Amino acid sequence: MSSGRDIVHAAEALALKVASRTLVRGSGGGEGAAATIAAAGGGARQQRMSDCGNPNTPDFLRIDEVATLEDVTVGQPNHPIVTRTMARRQGFALVRLPERLPQATDLLALLAEQAKENGDIAALILAALADGKVTRREAGSVRPQVHEAIAVLVAMDAELAIIEAEGSE
């Protein structure tokens, strides 16, 4: 039986509700999400899955449910949506790790790519500052470039970690 539907959550909880609703929809809706969780050995009803995304109910997805549903939504926009929302809530940005083992010979290519990304960021910021201020829209156009630069740095860090662990003195 469902509980009250008149709850007013704080902004942080509402962000989790929105992310949960997106995750459940991406998992086939309430029925698909419940079936996915059931197949993983859990128990979930369609109505509860819907309530977890409803901004006026007390229900939230459990962490194991989030993990199971995010496993089946790989490749969808903003994946993993609930994990990303929780990281942002704690002041972190989620960055995808490289999908392959790095090769030490890739360092020069990564350095060149990082220089390119930094140049793109600098060009956008300089253009935005031409009038002495940065608008919301201008900031929004710079951030994807910053995310690309971060991804290159993560790949570079992985390359260097392998060299450090396996390289010669």
What is the topology?
Layout: H1 11-26, H2 29-39, H3 46-53, H4 63-71, H5 81-89, H6 107-128, H7 136-166
How would you describe what is shown here?
- The chain has 169 residues and is an all-alpha fold.
- The protein contains seven helices and no strands.
- It has helices spanning 11-26, 29-39, 46-53, 63-71, 81-89, 107-128, 136-166.
Q: Tell me the total number of β-strands.
A: 0
Instruction: Report mean pLDDT, rounded to a whole number.
Output: 89
Helix content: 55-70%
Output the number of helix runs: 7
> Which radius of gyration do the C-alpha atoms yield?
21 Å
- The SSE string, one letter per element, is HHHHHHH
Taken as a percent bin, the fraction of beta residues is: under 5%
Our measurement of the CA-to-CA distance between the termini, rounded to an integer number of angstroms, reads 65 Å
Coarse shape: flat
Largest sheet, strands/sense/barrel: none
* Class per helix and strand makeup: mainly alpha
Low-confidence stretches: none
In a nutshell, what does this entry contain?
63% of the residues lie in helices and 0% in strands. It has 169 residues and is an all-alpha fold.
Characteristics:
single chain, 169 residues, mainly alpha, 7 helices, 63% helix, 0% strand, flat
